[in-house]
Design brief:
Strand content: under 5%
Order of helices and strands: HHHHHHHHH
Number of domains: 1
Mean pLDDT: 81
Structural class: mainly alpha
Distance between the termini: 30 Å
Length: about 290
């Protein structure tokens, strides 16, 4: 996609028929960030997902700078009655909803994890039998998966709008639209991979999971391997305990170990999501201010 041709020396609000000699540095920064996302690996671990969330924060920081530029604001204001601008606003709200769903899933899982850890520690003194609590945790994981499936269902409408193209628009408007749509694609892709990771899914289910991969042939949606997924490991440890696949003592030791690792992973992902959430809010507020000016 051609870079959005913003002139770093332009500060007026009149539309120019001549194109700037070179793209604005912020546009170059955005496109370089996008290039790193398209080249990302096809599998994710907790640490890599955390890294991608930080990269996504940087990318949306870049977008916030972009929408503050006078020429960007001019384009958005003049196009404020167009469908693509409405979809841009819908997308910004959709990102906040998906981010909230991921945060809620992590928070719910963390609370259940700490409760079960407390039960397992008390068991050492023979105070409690943890089987009931382990089954409750398994039930809570089903609740989380159900919420994630709902969030992914909501993402389908967002993903479908990323395929829309503009016609009969000038170069500047088309380039801005294309850049923003590319950023929507990578944002949805990371959210999809994150939600799948939290669900503990260890298989790439093309029909039900891959919402974004069809949008860009070069984009590869993550396939999470069980040995890289702390959530999947906990699910397996829970099943092992309930169905007595190993001795109770070994099952509990394994479960405690996996719970600790998952809790650490949750903390890492929560921090990244919270920072990203704040950036997404700032961008939406900026867009609303521009369009309602």
């Amino acid at each position: 996609m051609a870079p959005f041709p913003l002139n770093s020396k332009s500060h007026n609000h009149s539309r120019s028929n001549s194109l700037p000699s070179k793209p604005h540095p912020i546009t170059v920064e955005c496109n370089e960030s996008l290039a790193r996302f398209w080249a990302c690996d096809a599998s994710f671990s907790c640490s890599l997902l955390s890294c991608k969330l930080r990269d996504l924060q940087d990318l949306h920081d870049c977008i916030e700078k972009l929408v503050h530029l006078p020429l960007t604001q001019e384009v958005l204001f003049q196009e404020r009655q167009e469908k693509w601008v409405d979809e841009l606003l819908d997308g910004s709200l959709g990102f906040l909803d998906v981010c909230t769903a991921a945060k809620d899933a992590l928070l719910h899982t963390k609370e259940c994890t700490r409760e079960l850890q407390s039960i397992l520690r008390r068991r050492r003194g023979g105070e409690v039998e943890p089987t009931t609590e382990v089954k409750k945790f398994l039930t809570s994981r089903k609740v989380v998966r159900k919420a994630i499936l709902k969030a992914l269902g909501n993402m389908r409408s967002l993903a479908s709008k990323c395929n829309v193209s503009l016609t009969n628009k000038d170069h500047q408007t088309g380039a801005l639209f294309g850049l923003l749509k590319d950023i929507e694609v990578v944002t949805l892709s990371i959210f999809e991979s994150l939600l799948k990771f939290i669900s503990g899914s260890t298989q790439a289910k093309q029909s039900s999971w891959s919402l974004v991969s069809k949008l860009r042939h070069s984009q590869r949606v993550a396939c999470i391997e069980a040995d890289e997924n702390e959530f999947a490991k906990v699910d397996a440890a829970l099943q092992s305990f309930v169905f007595a696949m190993t001795s109770k003592s070994d099952s509990i030791k394994n479960l405690q170990s996996q719970l600790e690792k998952m809790e650490s992973c949750i903390q890492e992902l929560e921090e990244g999501l919270e920072c990203l959430f704040r950036r997404l809010i700032k961008i939406r507020v900026t867009l609303l201010n521009i369009l309602n000016h």
